[in-house]
Write a structure and sequence with these properties.
By secondary structure, this protein is of the alpha/beta class. Helices cover 39% and strands 23% of the residues. It has 17 helices and 18 strands. The protein has helices at residues 14-23, 77-97, 111-120, 125-132, 137-149, 184-187, 191-212, 231-238, 260-268, 283-289, 295-305, 325-338, 355-358, 366-382, 413-420, 453-459, 461-472, and strands at 2-8, 28-30, 35-43, 47-54, 61-67, 160-167, 169-170, 182-183, 215-223, 247-253, 273-276, 311-318, 342-347, 386-391, 402-406, 424-428, 433-438, 443-448. It has a 9-stranded mixed β-sheet with strand order 14-15-13-12-11-10-9-6-16, with helices on both faces. Helix 1 (14-23) links the parallel strand 1 (2-8) and strand 2 (28-30). Helix 3 (111-120) packs across helix 5, helix 4 (125-132) runs antiparallel to helix 5 (137-149) and helix 12 (325-338) packs parallel to helix 14. The chain is globular.
Length: 476
């Protein structure tokens, strides 16, 4: 590991630069006592100049001068300056470490959104990704393929919205999880109260939709594990989720919570799509990560769900503890054999607050992560699946990505809408974040509900009023 101490005279971009530095972990460690790496930035209306000095460089300093229109598009000046200097920093870190990252200088979670933006301006997006942003040809090809596949459902227009409903409760907490979800046993007495408050918010949501005139494309109930609450509460919430949408997803997630009654409830309330998420088909792994269900539970839940007309998504995670390439390949092959409509392949991200992060788990084998992800892409492709959405996360193994694969015509509308930020989102429940799209202003404003279950329960009506004011433009 190479130790550096990063500094810059462009303090307002410090957080952006540190995202690039972190992408090079564990090859580089930013800490006191390391060799100083200093980035100096100067810019005017015509040109941006970046000088990076470090004793580890083959020369005294690295210098780059770029015209403001380097990315051949209409990005705002400040965005271009950041991109130019981040690319320069990436080049230097690559020089020092000898390591090329699959997504080059890109640090954002939505590479496909940037690709869409470039295409909309008549730019050769593939050329920009490879030549200007240093993205590998393989990942550029993946992003390009996803963007092309999205064309049949990609929609960006005012007056369209999705509805998100959050039930942040799980049977147990997985060791990789950093979400706000609470374990059912610890909040059991609060669940009926939470369900009642959520029903009130959904009733208010329905009124809001009438007032705003939004056309609802999809409804997504996530968490957490929505199916871990009682049948009575579960059904009462789903009954309030008829907004005229064409797609209705419930993230059932944990196979041990999927019962015959839950499936019947989802069927009669119009659910069109569910998730059954094994994460792994290896029992030893399930035990280690805290899933508290068996491989047999996965097959049982899947077989029962197939009695209904749901599209099914199955999630897997590469780089889980106790798994090498063969264990992961086994999970991929098992998921394909089940023949779900969607298979989503995540790459493990070590999030702050997760048991794995706190325990010092090492997910930094870039070569193994790449081998796993490449196998999944090849295997699902041969089985007739195609990639249709993606996103990236911080602290992810191999600096890779999460990709949703689908059979033709089975793409999830909500996943595309939220990842490409092409739709307004009306969010309900603790931790829900509403988003209001204004195409003319090229803006996406946010309004967050309280994260914690306890705070959400305390604020009650205040939460609804704040969201109403946000969407109707009222002063609060």
């Amino acid at each position: 590991m190479i130790k550096i101490k990063f500094k810059t005279d462009a303090e307002k971009y410090y957080a952006d630069y540190m995202e690039v530095v972190r992408e090079f972990e564990p090859h580089i460690s930013d800490e006191e006592g390391g060799e100083e790496l200093f980035l100096s930035l100067a810019s005017d209306d015509q040109e941006t100049k970046v000088i990076i000095s470090c004793a580890l460089l083959p020369k005294k300093y690295y210098e780059i001068k770029q015209k403001i229109d380097i990315f051949r598009n209409n990005l705002a000046k400040i965005a271009q300056i950041k991109r130019i200097s981040k690319v320069a920093l990436y080049d230097v870190l690559k020089m020092i470490t000898g390591v090329s990252l699959p997504y080059g200088s890109l640090t954002g979670i939505r590479p496909t959104k940037l690709f869409h933006d470039l295409l909309s301006q008549g730019v050769d997006a593939e050329k920009v990704f490879e030549e200007d942003l240093r993205v590998s040809r393989d990942k550029t090809s993946l992003v390009s393929q996803i963007v092309k596949n999205q064309s049949e459902i990609y929609l960006k227009e005012d007056g369209v919205s999705d509805v998100f409903v959050n039930i942040p409760i799980c049977p147990t907490r997985c060791v990789y999880c950093s979400f706000i979800s609470a374990e059912f046993s610890k909040v059991k007495k609060h669940v009926p109260v939470y369900s009642e408050l959520l029903r009130q918010e959904l009733a208010d949501c329905k009124k809001l939709i009438v007032e705003t005139g939004y056309r609802i494309r999809s409804v997504y109930i996530g968490g957490g594990t929505p199916t871990c609450i009682s049948d009575e509460d579960f059904e009462s919430i789903l009954k309030l989720c008829d907004f005229g949408q064409s797609e209705f997803t419930v993230e059932a997630g944990r196979p041990d919570t999927i019962t015959e009654n839950k499936l019947k409830i989802m069927d009669k309330t119009g659910v069109t799509r569910i998730s059954i998420n094994p994460q792994s088909f290896n029992q030893a792994t399930l035990d280690v990560i805290g899933r508290r269900h068996t491989v047999e539970d996965i097959y049982r839940a899947y077989a029962e769900a197939r009695k209904y007309n749901f599209d099914i998504n199955t999630d897997l995670i590469a780089m889980l503890p106790c798994e090498g390439f063969e264990e992961f390949r086994h999970s991929v092959d098992c998921a394909i054999a089940l023949n779900p409509e969607n298979i989503t392949v995540h790459t493990l991200a070590l999030k702050k607050g997760s048991v794995l992060k706190v325990g010092g788990y090492d997910n930094s084998s870039d070569e193994l992560a790449a081998r796993m992800v490449d196998y999944a892409r090849e295997a699902v492709g041969k089985a007739g699946y195609t990639p249709y959405y993606m996103y990236r996360q911080k602290y992810v193994s191999g600096n890779l990505e999460n990709v949703g694969y689908s059979k033709p015509g089975k793409f999830c509308i909500y996943n595309v809408d939220i990842m490409e930020e092409t739709s307004t989102i009306i969010a309900n429940g603790a931790g829900g974040i509403s988003k209001k799209l204004d195409i003319a202003k090229n803006s996406l404003e946010r309004c967050a509900n309280p994260k914690g279950l306890d705070v959400y329960l305390q604020r009650g009506r205040e939460v609804f009023d704040k969201k109403r004011a946000f969407f109707l433009g009222e002063t609060k």
